[in-house]
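Hi all, posting the design record for the shared folder.

TITLE: backbone redesign
STEP: 1 of 1
STRUCTURE INPUT:
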């Protein structure tokens, strides 16, 4: 079933872009124009999280574009975290945009999130002292079975959980974790 309201909004958005008096854009739509039109509708709240986009042929018809242009635009928005493509189900507006997290030798959680305009936070869910497994002992350059803190922590972005993971720290190198004396 086609969402008529969405089609009208998309046609209206397309017409605004293609008929703008200062716009020298050609009448046939390139993928960037389609990407920008859909992105604008998402940013302005016209397309709500979870909303299903029209099918590829319907988008081609709405924008007077080729399938390649529509696919490229949808792919670009999916890479940006604005859309989610589900094989056999359709294309949906993502509920939260994905973060561009740079990973390198000195990746910093706080710096990465702040640069994206997101407030970083975290919480320790558990902390226990356990014997180091062979892999953990090797990574920490300890003897197998040496006491280590196994910390379960959750990282948050604007209050939304984005990761959950264990961190292992030599029990001899840390006096306390998460406010609990060891």
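Okay, here is what came back for every position:
SEQUENCE:
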């Amino acid at each position: 079933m086609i969402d008529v309201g969405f089609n009208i909004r998309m046609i209206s958005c397309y017409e605004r872009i293609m008929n703008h008096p200062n716009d020298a854009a050609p009448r046939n739509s390139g993928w960037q124009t389609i990407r920008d039109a859909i992105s604008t509708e998402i940013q302005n709240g016209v397309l709500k999280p979870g909303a299903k986009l029209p099918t590829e042929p319907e988008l081609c018809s709405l924008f007077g574009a080729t399938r390649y242009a529509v696919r490229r635009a949808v792919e670009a928005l999916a890479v940006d975290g604005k859309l989610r493509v589900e094989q056999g189900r359709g294309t949906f507006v993502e509920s939260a945009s994905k973060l561009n997290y740079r990973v390198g030798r000195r990746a910093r959680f706080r710096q990465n999130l702040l640069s994206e305009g997101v407030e970083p936070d975290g919480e320790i869910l558990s902390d226990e002292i356990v014997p180091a497994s062979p892999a953990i002992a090797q990574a920490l350059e300890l003897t197998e079975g040496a006491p280590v803190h196994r910390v379960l922590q959750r990282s948050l972005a604007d209050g939304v959980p984005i990761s959950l993971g264990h961190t292992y720290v030599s029990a001899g190198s840390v006096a306390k974790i998460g406010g609990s004396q060891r």
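COMMENT: The two ends are 61 Å apart (CA to CA).
Let me know if anyone wants the other runs.
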